[in-house]
Amino acid sequence: MMAAILVGIPLSAVEAIAPSVTWLHIGPVALLLPAAILFLRRWPISNAAATCIAGFVLLHLFAAHWTYSLVPYEDWLGFVGWDALIQLLSFDRNMFDRLVHFAFGVLAVIPFAELAIRYGSLSHRKAAIGSVMFVLAIGGLYEIFEWLLTIGLSPEEAGAYNGEQGDIFDSQKDMAIAALGALLALPWLRRHLKKG
User: Fold this and answer.
1) What is the pLDDT of residue 79?
2) Tens digits of residue pLDDT in 115-127
3) N or C end of the chain: smaller count of CB under 10 Å?
4) Residues 124/117, Cβ–Cβ less than 8 Å
5) Packing angle between helix 124-152 and helix 96-120, nearest 10 degrees?
6) How far apart, in whole angstroms, are the C-alpha atoms of residue 66 and residue 15?
7) Helix count (H) and strand count (E) of the chain?
8) C-alpha torsion 115→120→123→125, nearest 10
9) What are the contacts of 9-14 at 24+ separation with CB within 8 A?
10) How far apart are CA 193 and CA 124, in angstroms?
11) 167: how many CB neighbours lie within 10 A of its CB?
């Protein structure tokens, strides 16, 4: 999984739509990868939890190539003949960033709960509640980070990085969709914890 992420970092940058903004997305991943290796050696997690983390990071790297709001998913759906789905989903904005926020909510639950149970001695119930709170906290911190980042970027770069696409409530909607993902993942978490 680490090798896939290591390969995904430069692939995300190759012929990226907005290279300066793409590096803002993939730079932290490249810097945190060595720390993640050390962290996982010290505090190992299950394959399921590691897959969740790797899956989210790879999705993030994939979206970073197009700066999130330009991922051409409608073109891809049309190419495979899913025109009816495109019409059904005819949004007035590119929704790929919302998909990634939702995926974060879904995929963060198992790793957080595992760490909270194994190394924080929380009960299953408290770890489940904590995982939803974690998603909300990280979502809020990330939206604050995006806001602070816009102070130092040009309006074009800020728009490309943040992907708000003219929606003044983009931050709130991103956090809400991540929270929904976390809540919907709780039954999956319960099954996972029963196995372990």
Assistant:
1) 75
2) 999 999 999 999 9
3) C
4) yes
5) 130
6) 9
7) 9, 0
8) -60
9) 9/33, 9/61, 11/61, 11/65, 12/61, 12/62, 12/64, 12/65, 13/65, 14/65
10) 8
11) 13
